[in-house]
Design a protein that fits this description.
With about 200 residues, the protein is α/β, with parallel strands linked by helices. It is about 30% helix and about 10% strand.
Length: about 200
Amino acid sequence: MSDALRSLGVNQHSLVVTYDQLNGAYAARVWYLLAGVFGWRNVRVLDGGYARWVGTQGTIETGPAHSVACGDIQLSAARPLLRSTEQVEQEKQRPLVCALRREPFQQAHIPGSINLPYPELLNPDGLIDTLRVAEALRNAKITPPEELLLYCGGGINAAGLALALVSAGYPIDALLLYDDSLNGWLSDKHRPVSSGQVTHP
């Protein structure tokens, strides 16, 4: 990943701002890898993404990207925040928290999961609503800094959920991510799957 960032002109002291054209989850994935997995904290996510930027009359460019000089960033060794399917199968302590919307969650999820849909933590303008995040945590009876194991369909909305939780004060080091998520879990038909609404205790 260091090579990819250097090719974009990122230096050791650069401030990286990520954004996307959807609900911020893809931008959050880049943020999570940099800030969480590699411990590089000089990265931010543009709240509301491209749509919010356009809506506030932000300057827009068109055409090919500008050429840049090669950067010198060197990321630290990866930290063990990403979890494999095999590790999730053995998980006994950390709550499993699924960031999928309610309907797909009810269709299939890993047994014992809590549902905190990432899109429901955004306000109508697409900005992360920390009050909604705090309320969702209370309803799920989750108290920071309890370690959580986040997942979704393919590891994207789970990163968005991690961003929303950190925005509300949750420590990023307590947020592990099941990288293959439900796609990986369902790849073996012998793994248990639950469906239906989950009632929180």
